[in-house]
Amino acid sequence: MFTNVNPEYVGFLAAFFTTCAFLPQAYKIWKSKVSEGLSLAMYVVMAAGVLCWLLFGILIKSPSVIFANIISLTIVLFIIFFILKFK
Amino acid sequence: MFTNVNPEYVGFLAAFFTTCAFLPQAYKIWKSKVSEGLSLAMYVVMAAGVLCWLLFGILIKSPSVIFANIISLTIVLFIIFFILKFK
Prior knowledge:
The structure is a homodimer.
Chain A: H1 7-20, H2 22-32, H3 40-59, H4 63-85
């Protein structure tokens, strides 16, 4: 059914979505100053995971993996900062 | 510095962290019944992204990518369900 689809296009779209997904959460906590309900543990584990993906990108020398994960890490660290600030 | 590290080990660790990261958030919303502060938009975009990664895994025939993203998608949909329920 999908055999004629180039996996690279789907992977690019996937990376775009999973990177951008953190933006509305970052905006929401910055604007509302409400951190209730948010799990600090989630963002700490996510930061560790994104850091590993960044290292993975460096090891396989993939600029797109490095770039996407630098953006994700920045947004995730921003959310962690605001969770701690509005605790 | 890291040139002697197998990228596959780092990638596996990264996938493990970014998949498990959603678990503490899922537990927190289920236990506290508090959805305030959580961005519905984030989880909807994340679900779309994880769905694309799942399709990517099917296209490149990678059982580990398929497996990790089925778990992530399940947890993300669980969080979306509870955000809507406790709105």
